[in-house]
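Notes from the 1:1 (GR / supervisor)

We went over the backlog. Supervisor wanted to see one worked example end to end before approving the batch request, so GR pasted a single chain during the call. The sequence is below; no edits were made to it. Supervisor asked that the structure be written out right there so they could see what the output format looks like.
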Amino acid sequence: MAALRLGYRSVVLEKSAECPAAATAECLVGDWNSADDLFRLAERVDVLTLENEFVDAAHLAKLEAAGHKLWPTSRSIALVQDKLIQKQTLLDAGIPVPGMRGIADLAELESAVEELGLPLVLKARRNGYDGKGNATIRTSKEIASAWQQLRGDQGNALYVEEFCPFVSELAVVITRGLDGATVVYPLVETVQKDHVCNIVRAPAMVAEDIAAQAKQIALGAIEAVGAVGTFAVEMFLRNDGGIVVNELAPRVHNSGHYTIEACACSQFENHVRAVLGLPLGSSHMVAPHAVMVNLLGKYQGTGTALGLDRALAVAGANLHLYGKTTTSAGRKMGHVTALGKTSEEAERAAVACAEAISFQPVSNHDA
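Structure output shown during the call:
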């Protein structure tokens, strides 16, 4: 949608022709795990970009070797998509991260527990998101079950990370252009529900020195991986006042969806500008506060939204439905953003609109 506003057409590679992006872009049906399908896409466009970090970096490198323009680069994706490599890259650049180490087998996990202590978080090195691919080990009795849960015994690459006691979860969205120019969006606070982002408050209500420190950490993190385009840096504000990076997302991010209404130039438009080598737009907020609430599925159902009449009656709330055809527990089906003179005012409107929306359940007949 941001590309269309600037007069550019998009082609997306998706597994289904009924994907939400098909409403505004040409849909090429295929599999992003297939090098052949990636080349089919590359031959249709002038510039390639990504909206997730799961496309194998080795396939992406082949596209670049064949002369196709790709932003962010395959090297950036390779440094981010394996979370152990990501954290080591950040550590080497002087960016604060939780203590971590790779785990090759159950014996190494047991050794790590002895050395690092409990609680400890076991994580998949690749393809984990929204709490998927994580297991917190709180007692020694949970070591074996966590290993089995994340399929360590089946060769799934894992690592362990220190459990991080935190006051709040913070995020910074940054767009970096081809020339290295950067635009930094306001620091936000994110609130999780069952490991899925539920609420985003912008700007985060933290001390100025904390916000400045978070901004510098985020800038250092994206420079460490050679970012081009919009990236998100998720962080923990620790109980002791320190900040550590939780993870990077090499793409537009849920914590930046509020920028559509709340900022002069959204994270989406700035991403398009960045990968096309165009001047970046302002990240300045157009209202003192903004709050975004995710619309999360509660059960198996269709993508049909119920309660639109009540939701749209909430003054100041901006409703976004993604057009997904099915819903399930925790699935992101849309979001609501509201602006306000205070964070409380914005949150009341966003929550009221979000609570009015539900999604049609699958009937017993349909099942």
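Supervisor's comment: The chain has twelve helices and 20 strands.
Batch request approved.
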